[in-house]
Amino acid sequence: MARPSEAITQQIESLRTTIELHNYRYYVLNEPTIPDAEYDRLFRKLQQLEQQYPELVTLDSPTQRVGATPLTEFFQFKHRTPMLSLNNAFEATEVEAFDRRLCEEIATHAIEYSVEPKFDGLAVSLVYEQGLLTVGATRGDGHTGENITHNLRTIQSIPLRLPLENPPVYLEVRGEVMILKADFIQLNQHQEKKGEKLFANSRNAAAGSLRQLDPSITAQRRLTFFAYGIGVLEPPSGTLKRHSDVMTYLVSLHFPIAKEHQIVQGPVGLLTYYQWMMEQRERLLYDIDGVVYKVNNLSDQIRLGFVSRAPRFAIAHKFPAQEAVTQLLGIDVQVGRTGTLTPVARLAPIFVGGVTVTNATLHNEDEIKRKQIMIGDFVIVRRAGDVIPEVVAIVPEQRSVNVTAFTMPDYCPVCGSHAVRLTGETITRCTGGLFCPAQRKQAILHFASRRAMNIEGLGEKLVDQLVDHAIIRTPADLYKLGIAALSQLARMAEKSASNVLYAIEHSKHTTLARFIYALGIRHVGETTAKDLARYIGQMDRLMMMNVEQLQQVHDIGPIVAESIVDFFAEPHNREVIEQLRVTGVHWDESQEVLEYMLNPEVQGKAFVLTGTLPNLTREAAKTLIEQSGGKVTNSISTKTHYVVAGADPGSKYHKAVELGIPVLDETALFDLLETQIIKPVS
Ligand code: IVH
What we know:
Largest sheet: 7 strands, antiparallel
Radius of gyration: 37 Å
Shape: elongated
Mean pLDDT: 90
Number of helices: 25
Bound molecules: 2-(butylsulfanyl)adenosine
Structural class: alpha+beta
Low-confidence stretches: 590-596, 675-682
Helix content: 25-40%
Distance between the termini: 81 Å
Number of strands: 26
């Protein structure tokens, strides 16, 4: 093997420095200065040279972040100076008392503080010897932690070597490992896809990731590190006089620190910072659970010293808890404006995130199953900012024998219509779109919209009033409105009332496509409505078609077909359609259109009907046959082409068998009529 020349050694060294610099710009500053492809090229070049000259591979090379062999166990690591915890304050008065105590102690009137967020992750310590990362450890009991160097090395924002010509002999950096909120969501999505356990929060996810024996797993978890202090520095520095100097020093060593770090004066400064961070909280990329106040002057810190395991010069001011455990008393089902059925947890009242919570969303049926939630369980409730509280997980250890399972109702709890869950969807919906009180306003507004029935002047405010005063319940009620009812409403002068009435009257004459669209059937937009009108031509026919038949229509797949069938299967919807017709809503189903629909299989053929068909009334069956060009006669003879027989057929059935005339049931009749459906009517 060739001996590496000085030039090669230098090239490798320069590649490492360049790559580390780009790592720093990308992971710490969030300001990459080269395209990913260029970074990859540099990285591959380094890998290739290291492969060629394995004797030049060093542990601090950016190619060596993920070690090749997993550990078999964790080793303990004794901290040279203990990793302490912080005392907590929850109230402003506690913070004021803290400041007062310190003022007395160091005999001053005003203290300068270094303040920063309290990261909600895991404390770790990083040891750099002669500028190289040699050990990374957890806090453990504060004196002894676990050596997790192999995992911490995989975190790209942690430098493997310090960017210094003359690094200190020994430096211990303290900070927190976390998973950014966005990465946490992605991680859980990934876990779900793989069918693996979900993490309840980002802190648990970070902890789980650091507890891996195999660093290649940790490397996939996108952990982040933020530094907040130093443990040991040898030789000691003469220039670091304040905690804020330490932070600046850490930044110069390329460690990430919280951008929100500030210097403030006295208790007013502390409390103002607390309020400000509370407002920032939602916007931050990572989770925090409070803020930390530290006396800025380092010699004052030394003077104040420690009490048992916590420093006297610092305190954590915690935000109100965002998670709490309580009992799930029951599960209610709420119906949204679009008919979505959402299971909502009814909880034993619990104070969380600063308010008392009694309800929390459970999202949908699958979420309840996935989280294995039973009524009676003790559950972890989370409230983040203004969002609706949610049930995160159950506490399995607290489950009693008296828990019961939840099942999604088959009927809408608001209107009693069927509730269905369409293939491939996680959401259960009420099918009574035209009738359901929960969906009333939405349904009426959609019905009246410009591209549907085009009722000008019937906007949101008017619909709100009409529905809230129980003047109308369904779209059909619009056509029963009188001037008296309308003009009594707020902001409704007689003139505008009569304009609206005129628009309503005018909308009665419409097209089939607009009418179908106006019904607000899920998945039936304007284009689909037009296709349905064009291919099917008749409202009655549309209302009777099954999923297979509907799929023969251009561009209609199983999901849309299923949704249409569900909509018309709901008697409440049929009633509203019937009322609409009775009040005079009509559209063209012209003969000319029907001409095109004449089915050669049926045209001129004689049909006899007997017995009760499952779906069609005798009248409807007759209309369907006639629209396809067939005739319906009463008596059976050798001239009869088909007998359509339902339940309890009469003697006509036996006669048909005798004469050898084909007997059709309702499905066979549809099959026979169906051929015309695939031809457009236009
Ligand atoms: S300073 C001697 N600063 O809080 C003081 N700690 O309850 C050492 N923590 O285990 C801690 N954010 O992991 C400090 N900005 C911050 C922090 C912070 C989170 C954690 C730390 C420690 C715990 C103490």
